[in-house]
Amino acid sequence: MNRLRFLAARSLRQETALMRLSVPQRELLADLAGRSVALIGNARALAEAAHGSAIDKADLVIRINRAPMPAAPSHGSRTDWLALAVRLAAPDRDRIGPARILWMSPKRKRLDWRTAASPGFYLHPLGDYCALRDRLGAPPTTGAMLIDLALRSGLASLTLYGFDFFASQSLSGRR
């Protein structure tokens, strides 16, 4: 699909066409199987900890949205996958340097061409989003969707860092 067709599919909410840009979910889940995964949230409290080396030792490091990394001792330095629900500016994308981008938001109109055309791009199915929303009784966060996805994969371990459920606010937003 070229950029013009992408823009048309996005504007017209043609989910089937957009899903053709994505690696299949089964491939993503297979990439997680048997691996230790560090999932990094954006809680401000993480900056006060020293988890960086443990994060970087994981087989796979997944960060969320703008992926603030104020210091390697607290946040580590690796990002293998980046899970987005927001558009990411080019300088942030270059700073983070993920090998794979996952678009988790149901808001397809926020999805940009550079993200959708990136190698290994994954588009989280709307059906999965809706099923989790219905189970939770509320719209799931990007972190909740990642946890749900990871737990369906057969991974060896999942360790959460930077998740305190907004007790310390966020390093990347106003919440």
Enumerate how many helices there are, as a single number: 9
Q: Distance between termini?
A: 37 Å
CATH superfamily: Glycosyl transferase family 29
Classify the fold: give the CATH topology. Answer: sialyltransferase cstii, chain A
Question: Strand share of the residues?
Answer: 5-15%
The tally of structural domains comes to: 1
Can you name the CATH architecture? Alpha-Beta Complex
Q: How would a textbook summarize the main sheet?
A: 6 strands, parallel
Number of strands: 6
Radius of gyration: 16 Å
Strand order of the largest sheet: 5-4-3-2-1-6
Task: Tell me, rounded to a whole number, the average pLDDT.
Answer: 91
CATH class: Alpha Beta
- SSE topology string: HHHEHEHEHEHEHHE
